[in-house]
Specification:
There is one protein chain. The protein is mainly α. Helix content is about 80%, strand content about 0%. It contains one helix and no strands. The longest helix is centred in the middle third of the chain and has 42 residues, at about 10-50. The radius of gyration is 22 Å and the shape is rod-shaped. The chain starts with 9 loop residues before the first helix and ends with a helix.
């Protein structure tokens, strides 16, 4: 017993890969620097607090 699901239209593949690429750009290009900046601010605040 074999279940054939059929052909996936090319427009869906293009949509899938475009959204995947957009998600990678948003995460790695936009969100990662923001996260690193927030961590740097937290580390510097903690360092200044400990020096007092």
């Amino acid at each position: 017993m074999r279940n054939e699901k059929g052909h996936v239209p090319l427009r869906y593949w293009i949509l899938w890969w475009s959204l995947s690429a957009l998600a990678l750009v948003v995460f790695y290009v936009l969100l990662t620097p923001i996260w690193i900046g927030l961590r740097a601010l937290a580390w510097s605040a903690e360092f200044r607090r400990r020096r007092r």
